[in-house]
Amino acid sequence: MSRALLLLTVLVAAAAGATAQEVQRQGLVFEQWVRTTFFHGYQPASHTQRWDIPAAENRDHGGIPVNPKAIKHGTAVDLGDALRQYGIDEPFLLIAGFWQQDGAEKRIVNIVAAEVRPELWRRLWGPVTSADLLKFDALIKDTGRPVEELRKLALKMKNSPPFSEAVIQVNPKIDAHQRRLQCSLRFTDFFKHLAPGADPQPQASPALWGVAYPGPPASPPRASGRAP
Asked: Is the separation of the CB atoms in 137 and 119 below 8 Å?
């Protein structure tokens, strides 16, 4: 590899890392606003705990656990680990803050608080069973197969029944450093199934429970040519 190409590779990697950090920061700022404004400033004891805001800390909005998320407007809502999400058997609030890039800023343009009941959650998983997920999870964690082979097999499984028949999408993450089975809900399906009465379009003054979001933190635009 030439020195010029090596330098370009380093710069692209650095830009990608900075972009990921800015997107993550946007999520952290939104989640902190939700916790401070509506849940008495609750701070999670661990980033791996089951709920970002446990039911016991939700004294004013239904007494059920809460997960706030910041998502780019128009893109899928990332839900997290598939096995963990599949196992949810209680009602919860999913608070989604959708952002758009506005010049040098990422601006929250829509906020939706969707109460999800266990029976609805089960329907969104459709015909997928826990055994199906365990089989998928075991496949992507098979360290005896090359990464490229695993990716092809995982893509084929993802696009075949029962996974192709479910509303919730499974998303295998396979590379040299990770073997994870995540899941997500398409942007349109989020509004169709979880918030059918909400307007998915960007809002001039997005608010949650009557409280307007205070404004965006400064952050650079995403690098062109990268997947959302």
From this structure: no
